[in-house]
Amino acid sequence: MSRYLNRFVVVHRLAERQRGFITKVQLNELGVPSATVSRWTSDGLLVRIQHGIYRTRPGVLDFDDTLMLARLTMSDQHAISHRTALELWGLPGARRTKPTILGPHGSKSSSRFVSIRQTRSLNSVDLAMCDGIRVTTPLRSLIDSCEALDEATIGAVLSEAVRAGHFEYTDIPLRIAELGSRGRRGLGKLRRVVLSRTETDRFLNSYEQLAHRVVASGGFPRPVPQFRLSIGGKTFFVDFAWPDYRVIMECDSMLAHSSPEQLQADLARQNLILGSGWTVLRFTYWDIHDRPAEVMRTLAQFLPQSEAQLYVP
Q: Which regions of 34-105 does DSSP assign to beta strands (E)?
């Protein structure tokens, strides 16, 4: 094999690990002269995609291709952001179209396949790694995406992100204050949704405390509150769990499931949990408050009770 082709084989192997893309910097590191790059481009072995990036494959770029292109376009000061980051985090409101990256104000990167945004406020608290990719955190991604999302979708993002443990509602006001400079659009929608959720949380916290008292008075084993459960690559937090018995108790209310998106997400979550062999017991506020004996009767079908407090229907 000629040196010309042998060198291209090495380049091709690296490009195949990057969905066919290779950068000018990588070509230089492999010892490929600019004249050879020009010749390969003329011969059709390389296709110039944008400044400093080539491809060894012809054809239309799909989302995964453009996502890789975005990663190669980023400097060490950029991160995948906005609704593209929501996609990588597996959150609602995502968009699998033109990827978005966020970098410091004054950066000069450009691409017709990647949306490149600039900001004066991007620091370590807003950055994380997701599947080996540098991205903005779920909270920063939501804040940056609010302009393009309606309040129902913002609510769905908040529900799933908090449920997955990405952040808490109490984390949001400070980041809004820090990032809510003049000209940042969409934060009014986020503030309204957060206000409604935090009012709801005050009710739910007392609700779950009441449930805990009912469980204790029934002589049942002490449950694990806010138990973390990982199933099929997804992470959930359930109100109470008895891992030794694979039993879960959820405290439901209309406030917690007040939108079609929230109800749909909750049903999909429950199906995954049931499919993994857990028993899920769900009670309303009125069950816990007005019918504690019925709640204990149900729990007694799945959990042991101490003899001193054995419930007899």
A: 47-50, 53-55, 79-80, 100-104
Q: Kindly report whether the global pTM for this prediction surpasses the value 0.70.
A: no
Output the pLDDT for position 258.
47
Alpha carbon separation from 234 to 138, 202, 268 (Å, rounded): 15, 27, 11
Compute φ and ψ for 64, nearest 5 degrees. Answer: -65, -35
d(CA 159, CA 191): 14
The answer to whether the Cα torsion of 82, 88, 89, 90 is positive or negative is positive
CATH code given to domain 202-309 = 3.40.960.10
Closest CA relative to residue 140, chosen from 107, 90, 179: 179
Phi, psi of 72 (to 5 degrees): -75, -25
For domain 3-55, give the CATH number: 1.10.10
Range from 86-95, 99-108, 264-273, 298-307 that averages highest in pLDDT: 86-95
Q: Are 302 and 295 in contact (CB under 8 A)?
A: no
Q: Can you give the residue ranges of every domain in the chain?
A: 3-55, 63-197, 202-309
Mean pLDDT score, 295-310: 80
Beta bridge partners of 237: 228
How does DSSP classify residue 274? H
Q: What single-letter DSSP state applies at residue 232?
A: T
Q: Please calculate the CA angle 133-11-1 and round it to the nearest 5 degrees.
A: 160
Instruction: Please tell me which residue, 286 or 89, carries the higher pLDDT value.
Output: 89
CA pair distance 286, 281, nearest whole angstrom:
15
Rounded to 10 degrees, the C-alpha dihedral 202/239/258/180 comes to: 60
* DSSP symbol at 220: P
Confidence band of 313 (pLDDT split at 50, 70, 90)? very low
pLDDT of 227 strictly over 60? yes
